[in-house]
Amino acid sequence: MTSTERNLCIYHRLGWSTNHQQQPCPNCHQTTRLSKQHLLSCHRVHTFLSISKNISDPVSFILNRLPKTPPTSHQKHVYWKIIWPKLCYILHQLHRTCRPDYYTTPSPAKNQFGHLLLQWTEPPLVPHTPLLNL
């Protein structure tokens, strides 16, 4: 995980990425308070992350599931390979919406996020030993 990705995760968890002043939302152009709930609905985070709408905070839901050790099952590896770049991208978009003054360049492409954690989750390569024909 890069330091930027870690900072965005921490900002979200502490509520620092929201801006509680009445202002136009750069995403939907509605003048509103940029609360966490507005940002989640405005950016359609539940749909983007394929999380049930019954989960009140899909970002925290995923962050709570971060593995402490590299996943051993193929299914979990595939899950993180799909969900982690999406989560990093949406955190970037949420922060960018609330703090546009921090950003002077366009957002990177969706596939540019989350590479370090994905490398960590990669299963180790087992060296192939050739079979001997006797």
From TrEMBL:
<protein>
    <submittedName>
        <fullName>Uncharacterized protein</fullName>
    </submittedName>
</protein>
